[in-house]
Amino acid sequence: MKEFSDLGAGFKIAALDLELRGAGNMLGGEQSGHIEAIGFEMYTTMLEEAVNKMKGEGEKPAHATTVLNLGISVRIDSDYIPEENQRLRMYKRIAGAADQATIDDVRSELHDRYGAPPESVLNLLSAGELRLHCERLGIAQLDRKRTQIELPNPNGNKKAPIKTFVEMLHLRFAVPEEGTLAHAAVDPGMLMKLVARNAKRGAQFTPQGILRWPLTSAKAEDVLAETRALLDSLDPA
Questions:
Q1: Could you give the CA distance from residue 161 to residue 102 in angstroms, rounded to a whole number?
Q2: What is the DSSP pairing of strand 67-69 with strand 210-214?
Q3: What are the distances in angstroms from CA 17 to CA 20, 24, 27, 83?
Q4: What DSSP line would sit under the chain, residue for residue?
Q5: CB 95: neighbour CB atoms within 10 A?
Q6: What pTM value is reported for the model?
Q7: Residue ranges of the chain with per-residue pLDDT less than 50
Q8: What's the pLDDT score for residue 104?
Q9: pLDDT of residue 176
Q10: What is the pLDDT of residues 32-51, one digit of tens each?
Q11: What's the pLDDT score for residue 10?
């Protein structure tokens, strides 16, 4: 108990629990328990809040961060970093990175100390970069989901659209009261034009304020590349 009573203990417990039980493809389809549904960042945040309540500590001021769930393998295996404490340290640095410089420092340290990172670690670093980009754009949550959509019938019959399931990104934009996420930096007019240009592929902006964006592949490298391309297209800079 003494080891897990300091600041950030919730993260340590959550990560250690994943190490002991086996995380599977973290944030992916093989992930067990509720973490699959809510994402790794939110899982560790909720667990840390529970630990604080058990210790009788008051709630800390909320710090909103983008919840990212791309359904790909983002983990650090013991074959790459044998020391458990060092794996936890890297997880925490990436999950808590507040800028690109921190991600770059972690990447350099990994190369220097452990050699070229495997694919799952590179995915983890890329996910950290995407989270930062989402926060700059005021995106509160980004999930990859298999979604049923309706596409135009090639025969021209508007009353009988083609229904199919595709991999899609679901983006929920933040509202001011959600915490410290930046106010939405995406121009509404630009967003609507982007959706209109890609409507035939299944792009939608729902009445609930969710941007649904179709993906062409479920491969990790493609998911990351297409997510990055979408965020770039939403970025006014």
A1: 47
A2: unpaired
A3: 5, 12, 15, 15
A4: -GGGSSTTHHHHHHHHHHHHH--SSTTSTT--STHHHH-HHHHHHHHHHHHHHHTTPPPPPP----EEE--S-----TTT---HHHHHHHHHHHHT--SHHHHHHHHHHHHHHH-SPPHHHHHHHHHHHHHHHHHHHTEEEEEEEEEEEEE--TT--TTSPEEEEEEEEEEEE--GGGSSSPPP-S-HHHHHHHHHHTGGGT-EE-TTSEEEEE-S--SHHHHHHHHHHHHHHH---
A5: 18
A6: 0.71
A7: 1-5, 20-32, 34-36, 60-63, 178-183
A8: 97
A9: 58
A10: 454 445 555 566 666 667 77
A11: 59
Both structure tokens of 86 = 């060092």
CA distance 23 to 16: 10
Residue 164, pLDDT score? 79
Q: Which residue has the tokens 């592929």?
A: 201
